What we know:
Elements: H1 9-15, H2 17-33, H3 37-56, H4 61-83, H5 94-119, H6 122-127, H7 129-149, H8 158-183
Helix pairs in contact: 1-2, 3-4, 3-5, 4-5, 4-8, 5-7, 7-8
Amino acid sequence: MTTKENVTFESVSNTRPELAEFIEGAANVANILSPIVPVLSIITTLIKDIFAIHEKAQFNKKIIESIINRIIAVEVAINLLKSRTKCDEKFQDLKYQKSFLKFQDSLEKIKVFAEEVAQLRVVETFLCAKSIEKKFNELMEEYEACMKDLSFTMIIVFDEQRRIDNDILNNALAKMVKVLRNVQ
């Protein structure tokens, strides 16, 4: 007869091998994902924050919408990673972990940019149009590089999205010029 003190992992594994394998597998997944999980949570929060900025934006909503169009696909990929139950060797790779940190940093910059653009009125946007366009393009290039490092490139067709974003940006800026000319 076995008492509580005598019950060990080995005795549990001998009586229920499937349970022991499951526990060992879960422990391995937790160990592998442990450095990534907090970063994934921060990334998820940043994505939600950018969506909230878009919803609350009174100005330049189209510019922020271009950012949202790229982030939507990433949100799906991040949720898939968070729910992954099988071990994946790339999570153990320090380079891959650093790529997630760079991705987090990129999203933080995008969030700040979206906040700033959402507060710019028509005149301010017009005066800063070239600067906005330059910053937008820099952020999207950095974002795309992170996506490639993380192997998320299969989700987004960058060239097509870049064309769409440029059209949206140019149309939004052209409308502002029209509004300013009508005001004068």
